[in-house]
Amino acid sequence: MYNAAMIEKELVAASTEPLILSLLAKGESYGYELIQEVKRLSGEEIQWTDGMLYPVLHRMEDSGWITARWVEMENGRKRKYYSIKEDGHQALKKKREQWTVISSVLGGLWKGQHV
Amino acid sequence: MFDLEPSITEWRRQMRAAGLKAGRRLDELENHLREEISALKSAGASDAVAFEQAIARLGSPHSVSTEFNKIRVVHIWPVKIGWTLWLAAILLLAGGLTPGLLAGRLDFVLGAHILSVTAGYTGAMLLGGFGILYVVWGRSGRLSLARQQSLNRAVHRFGPLAASLVITGLLLGMLWSRQNLGRYWGWDPKEIGGLCASTWLVALVVMPRYARLRDRAVMLLGIGGSTVVTLAWFGSNLWDTRRGLRAYGSETCWLLAVLLGIHLVFLVMGMTPAREARKS
Questions:
Q1: CB 3.0 to 4.6 Å from A70: which of A78, B16, B246, B247, for a disulfide?
Q2: CB-CB: which of B25, B59, B212 is closest to A50?
Q3: Structure ipTM
Q4: pLDDT tens digits, one per residue of B89-121
Q5: How far is CA B228 from CA A27, B13, B221, in A?
């Protein structure tokens, strides 16, 4: 079946930070889980190259939007959990406003149009 | 026969060879790799297939390393020199105050006040220096992305430190004033200057977080902060001299005029539209 909604990589890249912030606003998580959650929510239409997520997470950590802690698992290995900070909530608020404007404009333009 | 552990060890070696340093970043990626392998094996894949698919999904060592390198902020030499000189000056001042404190010639609260205010004021003036560099490079078209990022990070990290030091110094000054003059606050020009500097520096820290300020506006706030500190530090001496309260201010008149002139020139320059940052 033709996948009409295979999302272009530029759009995926632009949406990465708001997606991460939105997921972390729901609770603490780690890289692998974030990727699985995005796949599930998008019906596998958003495909991140797994290794590309981590530089973004680290950049957001450097920006003070998110924070991280290492948690020891049952098998003795350590897993890095990320959580959102107050600055991250502020950044998410701004990004949400921006995406809402874009969504609203496009929604208005496409209303009643058949593509 | 495929053996998973040596394969993961080899994958780590390739990641290091591609420029990703061994450490927490690599550990995090390895955890991810292992979780992916585990999930694929649960879905019925063999060890070899799961490993191959997992490293393919993670991305090549070169591409992952390249992405990590993009987020690395390179500190430019003026920032490094500024930080080093500031730290050296504070250590020298602390060293100079210590004998007096140990001998009991200098009150501890007063010594801590001097150290804190001096560190905060010089820090704020360093921020102003970074702002001036931003303006100069912006006007001359030499504001590369690396320079922009380095100056931004310096201001965002140094601003809260300078503000905290000035506020701490102000509070310590109030405490010393209460202990020695019988009042916390006397509207002394230095107290007013400290209050103005604290307010400006707090605004420099808070405003970029809650208002949509562009980088240039933050840098101009930095130059403005340095101007306020110049007035608080040197201007209050002059003010006191005129009122006859202190006698050590008149020689700083020329210094104040020069410093204010420099700040004013760069503030005006910064307010005119700058060229866009070049990609580096």
A1: A78
A2: B59
A3: 0.84
A4: 999 999 999 999 999 888 999 999 999 999 999
A5: 43, 54, 10
